[in-house]
Design a protein that fits this description.
about 260 residues, mainly alpha, 10 helices, about 75% helix
């Protein structure tokens, strides 16, 4: 039985070797076809094809600039900077986490910018999708509500700075100011406003820190970190005054 079993194993091994050899020969004779991917730029006799390609290129460019547009042309900058100041004033390190603050700032941005985006949708996007206006007209109508929002929140001093630096003729009205001068002026105005709100937020928490530090020094507990004692009092004060409600309400009302 042992010899018979060994003979069967040898025959099976030989058959497997022959099968593998046949498969290798077959693969060598007929190589595996792999798909080929490529991006070609060809010529076209139709101007419509070129215009469509340029529109696709412009759309991709706008999509790459979408984060910068969201940050610098909306209320996002003021909201996220104020939230950062608030967290530093509370001295809670990474609580709330960055993901929570950014998510809340995004949804508050959607809330405050909803009237502007609704106007853009009604006057620019929907007519363009219904082929009632062309692309240039749609862009002008979409930029108008954003210009109005940014100009309303921008200080005249900051706006005059970039108008003078651009060396353009003196504008007769807000509609003559170029968009590339409005955006940076709006950004630095938002930063200044956010820093002012952050300074006001710091005041009550600094008072708590000073009271706790002076109390510990008078008691001779100089080795005990004041931050460890003041943190619970800061949290208690923030909870008692319903701090998140007040901060969010103040932020939203500051845009109106």
């Amino acid at each position: 039985m042992n010899k018979e079993g060994q003979r069967k194993k040898i025959i099976l091994a030989v058959l497997m070797a022959i099968l593998l050899l046949l498969v290798a020969v077959e693969l060598k004779a007929a190589p595996l076809a792999l798909p080929k991917l490529g991006l070609d730029v060809g010529s076209s006799d139709k101007p419509q094809d070129v215009a469509l390609s340029l529109q696709i290129l412009a759309l991709l460019t706008v999509l790459t600039l979408a984060p910068a547009i969201l940050i610098l042309m909306t209320s996002f900058t003021r909201i996220i900077v104020v939230f950062s100041f608030l967290r530093n004033a509370l001295a809670t390190q990474q609580m709330p986490p960055n993901q929570v603050l950014i998510g809340l700032a995004l949804f508050l941005t959607f809330f405050t910018m909803a009237p502007v985006w609704n106007e853009i949708n009604q006057n620019a996007l929907q007519p363009y999708l219904n082929e009632q206006i062309n692309q240039e007209t749609a862009f002008q109508k979409a930029a108008s509500p954003l210009r109005e929002f940014m100009l309303k929140q921008t200080r005249e001093k900051d706006l005059a700075l970039f108008v003078n630096l651009s060396e353009t003729p003196k504008p007769n009205g807000p509609e003559d100011i170029p968009i590339y001068a409005i955006v940076p002026a709006f950004a630095i105005s938002e930063l200044k406003t956010a820093f002012q709100i952050g300074f006001i937020l710091y005041i009550p928490f600094i008072i708590i820190d000073m009271v706790v530090a002076s109390t510990l020094m008078s008691m001779g507990m100089m080795m005990l970190p004041p931050m460890m004692i003041s943190l619970p009092f800061k949290l208690l004060l923030f909870i008692l005054v319903d701090g998140w409600n007040l901060v969010v309400q103040s932020l939203i009302m500051s845009f109106r």
